[in-house]
Amino acid sequence: MSAAMTPGTLGLSREDLPNSYIGRAVPRPNVRKLVQGRATYVDDISLPRMLHVAFVRSPHAHARIATIDAERARAMPGVVRVFTGADLAAVCDPWVATLAHLKGMKSAPQYPLPLERATWQGEAVVAVVADSVAHAEDAVQEVAIDWEPLEALVDMERALDAAAPVLHADLGDNLVFTRTADTGQVDAAFAEADRVIEATFHSGRHTGVTLEPRSILADYNRGDGTLTVYHSTQAPHMMQGVFARHLKMAEGDVRVICKDVGGSYGVKVHVYPDEMAVAAIARILGRPVKFVADRFESFVSDIHARDHRISGRIAVMNDGRIVGFDIDDLTGIGPYSVYPRTSAIEGNQVVNLCGGPYDFAHYRCTTTVVLQNKAPTCQYRAVGHPIATAVTEGLVDLAAEAIGMDPLEFRRRNLIRDDAYPCTSPAGMKFEGLSHHQALDRLIAMVEPAKLRAEQAALREKGIYRGLGFASFIELTNPSPFMYGIGGARISAQDGCTVRMDPDGSVVALSGVTEQGQGTEAMLAQIVAHGVGVPVERVKIVTGDTMTTPYGGGTWACRGTGIGGEAALQSALALREQLVAVAASILQAQADSLDVHMGNVVDKASGEVRMPLAELGRLVYFRGDTLPKDAPREFVQTRHFITKDYPFAFTNGIQASWLEVDVETGLVRLLKHWVVEDCGRIVNPLLVDEQVRGGVVQGIGGALYEHCLYDETGQLRTTTLADYLVPMAAEMPDIAVGHVETPTRESLLGAKGAGEAGTAGAPGAIMNAINDALRPLGAKVFAQPFTPQNILSALGRV
Amino acid sequence: MSALMTISLTVNGERVTRSVEPRRHLIDFLRLDLGLTGAHASCEHGVCGACTVRVNGEIVRGCLVLAASLDGAQVETVEGLSDGGTVADLQEAFVARNAAQCGFCTPGMLMAAADLLDHHLTADRAVIREHISGNYCRCTGYQAIVDAIADVASARLARQGGAA
To answer: How large is the ipTM?
Structure first.
């Protein structure tokens, strides 16, 4: 069976529908409990003798902690203990978030609670433990801290000035990391180019706003020395290792259980000091201890992202050929690099991704990553992609405008040809197979730009300003150890799946990838059903438990289907082979004459049912005495998968935005949005489309509304959902999604990631559409979010 | 702390009597005192809608209503609606359209959607979008939710038309 396994013989192709679960819009098996309110998020779990933690958080962006007086707090009703940084440092080792392959990177040691200084407003400083959340919060008010405020470094542009305060004296300066990619001869090529156009872009600091706040319930059992952590996380195995390492326990004595997760988007793949504090407190108290962030805490202590200033230049020839890009990126990441992924990856991604869709020779891009006294930043959905795409596509539109060429025609002349693969980008990214031109053609068919251009021209006569903007993009998915592992981080790029058949013929699959609502369990069920040969209703999926699932990386960088799905397919196929082998020995048939189809062992040639799987299960599990002595009996198989040929499986796509700018109010009304993307083999088109749409809307949030605004003293001014705006239903457009499918040849399944494509391209498309709308008025905007004030300012009206 | 207040009310058809602190919010009363974890606390300042439940037939923010004010009230949560079957068509439409991803907003979203469908079956997509704008969803981008509600609106309208 395995000798002939190809996507074709396995029935994975389009042509195999409708007799295949691959490519079919199967509803998610685990969504019904969600619509009935019967999910289990961490805050829904209560354990006997459970305690609750509330934190005293720093009111200052930068201040020395002179004294802490917790006497009154300890006397408050229900209070059990109060912990300071020193108390927790006794049981929990600090961490330093650097990666060895990011040359020269540095960061300071971080503790669950700081020992001497608070370095951002909202940093947890003291932990109060009580018998209820209300009692813990009451007592927080009674902790008296004598603060000695220090100068706060707020503006990232000042971070490397000689006069700026150095946040961690041991580091010498505030530079965390810098890297330059330099390919070709940028200076000479730019000097010879027909036109060089430049602009400075800003990406506004924003955050994930998971509706379920960060949540953790840690329980240390002194009887058996085990720590069980119920955690709203994307990476249970990674967190198991982190808890063990820093609490000085054996990894096998730590179990992380991750039931339902109420949104993550990258926010919940990081190590948060307050969550480490909860685990350390459970370790000390020997009792279950819970912490659920409130919304204020989420805004000041969830990771922020995308705080970048990017100066860019593009050189072009008058015939429309791109000569090169020259880009300088600066990003402020807060006072610490975030563990263990580090806060240098986003800037590093900007260097990797700028210019990504295009064929050009000369490239220079520098990122400079600096410290500041704001909430730490780290990886958030589409890490670096929306920045790189907005800069690239903004420059591309400026270049097209400068030489008087239609922006779509300009893209057509410069997008990497569909027959040019495999190839390597000037930034060093290896592309196995992309489909920019197919995607462009598909998008044009959906958008019908000629019609919209006519409408645009007609409406301009009436003083109505509509714009059409495009953004081509690439997206990094299916990461190998080149992302984190080679830098020394214990983050698994490999993933595994165990598939077993139980006596009644039902199938259970345990996977190391996790469900955050994106549909992981549905995807796995479809693949396993297809691979084993059973109805999808007979498959149950287990994820999110380090004790029972194969070791894996969880959810990040769009790897669930590409990596976890392939492991599931391989293990399911191995189980089918095993089922056939056992059945053959019972039926006294040749194994290669049998197959498994929809829950039955069948004759491969005729399709005739030879034995239901439930009968096979009955015989093997209960009447093993009737089998030949040497018959195999294992109905369980495990396979792991990791990519080996390419560091990443890149995907590609293009988006278009059609919108109207009210030039009196500066308000942007989104009329329609289109996406064409190529994530390789699509397992479930419904889920892929919904990932793309959700991603687009998160991109729209960053482009138009979301902004973590700090004042000059480092106080965050946007700490409620009334101040920090997120997209609401009424303002969002309908989003049309189209596909091209270029399966990766690295796996049988051929799937790449789809979860971040929407976020990667939306801000660039919207920026270009706004600037297209404003073109007759001579105004342009490059600083996200494109608020009414920014647009009116560009128009010279405020 | 102030003295406890005793309230008697009906929750999902069951009579409930509890003594509560005057500051206890309805969402905490439901989740912590009654173990009804279907409605969720998310922003806790009345913006996001994840805690939306019904009080005396009207949808309210569970994070803005004090339990102590509910003596004699009728409260319904997603658990009650699910068991009663009154929103089964809406729930099926959410499943079919994948109008829920992480599911954290979903019980509140269903409450808002059911409220609209109870009052305004001819709502078009713009009206639906407007009506659910008090319920934030970070996963879906809303389109699938609008689709699901629109599907149910037309199906119920067709049924009403058929019956008339």
So the answer is: 0.97
